[in-house]
Specification:
By secondary structure, this protein is mainly alpha-helical. The protein folds into two domains: about 160 residues, no CATH class; about 170 residues. The protein contains 14 helices and two strands. Strands 1-2 form a two-stranded antiparallel ribbon. A hairpin with a 5-residue loop joins strand 1 and strand 2. The chain is globular. The termini are far apart. The N terminus is likely disordered.
C-alpha cells in the first residue's frame, strides 16, 4: 500500500515562491545556428570572428596609412633611387647594344660618362656663375637703391639692413646654421641615392625577382610584366623630359644672348636644369637671369622678364605637351592632381618626383586594372 506524506512548509518556501513570481529577468536562450545564403550554417562564434577580422583589417589599413604618411620622405628617397637606376640601366642597355661590351662594363662606362658630363658642366660654368653671383651681390645695394627711388622709397638698402639687424644676430645665425644642416642632409641623401642606384642598376633582375616574390605564385608573371612596362614608361618619360629641357635651354640661351645678359650659356643651363621640377622649377630657373638683369638697367630687366615669360609659355603650352604626348601621353589634369597630392605628402621632394610617380601609377592602373581586370582595351605607354 502506497502512502503519501505531507512535508510541512519550510521557513523559506514562501519567500522562494514570491521570488519566483516576481523575478522577471530575461533569460538568454542560445539561438540555433543560422543558415547563410549558400545553405551553409554559420555559428555565432564564427560571425564574431568575421567581425573581429574586419575590425583588424580596418585598424591595419589606418596604421599602414599613418606609417606611409610618416615615412613619406623615405618613400621619395627610394623612388628617386629606382628612377635613377632605371635610367642608368636603360643607358647601359643602349651602350651594350651598340658596342661589344658586357652589361657590367656598359653600366660602368655609362655611369662614368654621366659623372664626367656633370663635373664638366660644373667646372665650365661653376666658376663663371660664382663670379657673376659675387658681382650681383656687389651691385645689389645700388640696384636696391635704384629700385627704391623708382618706387619713392629713399635709402631702401639702409632700411633693409636696419630691419635685418633689428631681428637679432642670434636668430640670423640660427637660420644660417639650419640652412647649413639642410644642405648637408641634401648632399648626404644625394650620395646615398647615387650609390644605391648604381647597385640597383648593376643587377636589376635580382631586385625584380625579390619584388615579385612578395605576391602569390600565380601572379608572378603578371606582376613582372607590369614592372617591366612601368620601367619602360619611366624611361620614355625621362627621354621626353630631357628633350624638353634641352629645348628650353636653347631658347633661353638665345634670348639671354640677344638681350645682352652676362653669362647667357650658364643662365640657360640653370633654366634648363630647373625645368625638371614642375610648376616651381621654371620660376627658380628664371631668378638668376632676372637678378643679373636688375643690376644693369630697367630696360634689360623688362626684356628679360618678357623673354622668361615667353619661354615658359612655349614650354608649358607647346614644347612639353607635344613631346610628352609622343612619350607617355599623360593627361594635364592628372599631372596637376599628382603634383597636388604628392606635394601634400612630401613637400618639395613630392613636387620634384610627382610627375614620374603619376606616370608609374597611371601605367599600373591601366595595365593591371583597366585591361587585365576590367577587360577594356587601352594603350599603355612603354608597352612594346
Amino acid at each position: 500500500m502506497r502512502r503519501t506524506y505531507q512535508v510541512p512548509a519550510g521557513p523559506f518556501e514562501n519567500t522562494a515562491r514570491r521570488t519566483m513570481k516576481t523575478d522577471t529577468r530575461r533569460v538568454v536562450v542560445p539561438q540555433p545556428a543560422r543558415p547563410t545564403k549558400d545553405g551553409s550554417v554559420q555559428s555565432e562564434a564564427m560571425s564574431d570572428w568575421v567581425f573581429f577580422r574586419r575590425v583588424l583589417v580596418v585598424v591595419a589599413t589606418v596604421a599602414a596609412t599613418y606609417l606611409v604618411w610618416k615615412i613619406a620622405a623615405l618613400f621619395f628617397l627610394f623612388f628617386a633611387t629606382v628612377l635613377i637606376a632605371v635610367l642608368l640601366a636603360g643607358l647601359a642597355g643602349l651602350v651594350a647594344t651598340f658596342t661589344s661590351m658586357s652589361r657590367s662594363c656598359a653600366l660602368a662606362a655609362s655611369s662614368v660618362t654621366v659623372a664626367a658630363v656633370v663635373v664638366a658642366i660644373l667646372g665650365l660654368f661653376g666658376t663663371q656663375l660664382a663670379g657673376q653671383i659675387s658681382d650681383v651681390f656687389a651691385r645689389l645695394p645700388g640696384a636696391i637703391e635704384a629700385g627704391g627711388e623708382q618706387l619713392g622709397i629713399h635709402n631702401a638698402f639702409e632700411q633693409i639692413k636696419q630691419a635685418i639687424s633689428a631681428e637679432g644676430g642670434g636668430q640670423l645665425l640660427s637660420r644660417v646654421a639650419s640652412l647649413g644642416y639642410t644642405a648637408m642632409g641634401v648632399a648626404t641623401d644625394l650620395v646615398l641615392i647615387i650609390v644605391m642606384a648604381v647597385y640597383l642598376a648593376a643587377d636589376p633582375r635580382l631586385y625584380r625577382a625579390g619584388m615579385i616574390k612578395l605576391f602569390p605564385p600565380e601572379q608572378h608573371e603578371r606582376v613582372g610584366d607590369a614592372l617591366d612596362v612601368t620601367a619602360s614608361a619611366l624611361r620614355l618619360w625621362f627621354l621626353g623630359q630631357l628633350v624638353s629641357m634641352v629645348l628650353v635651354g636653347v631658347l633661353s640661351g638665345f634670348a639671354f644672348w640677344a638681350i645682352g645678359l652676362p653669362s647667357p650659356l650658364g643662365l640657360a643651363l640653370v633654366a634648363s636644369a630647373t625645368n625638371f621640377v614642375p610648376m616651381i622649377g621654371p620660376l627658380i630657373g628664371a631668378m638668376p637671369a632676372l637678378l643679373f638683369a636688375v643690376t644693369q638697367d630697367l630696360a634689360t630687366a623688362f626684356w628679360t622678364m618678357v623673354a622668361v615669360l615667353a619661354v615658359q609659355q612655349l614650354e608649358g603650352n607647346l614644347i612639353t605637351p607635344m613631346v610628352q604626348r609622343r612619350a607617355v601621353d599623360i593627361p594635364p589634369a592628372l599631372m596637376l592632381l599628382g603634383i597636388a597630392v604628392f606635394g601634400l605628402l612630401g613637400g618639395i621632394a613630392g613636387i620634384i618626383f610627382a610627375v614620374p610617380l603619376t606616370v608609374a601609377i597611371m601605367v599600373l592602373v591601366q595595365k593591371l586594372w583597366i585591361r587585365e581586370t576590367l577587360g577594356e582595351k587601352t594603350t599603355i605607354p612603354g608597352e612594346t
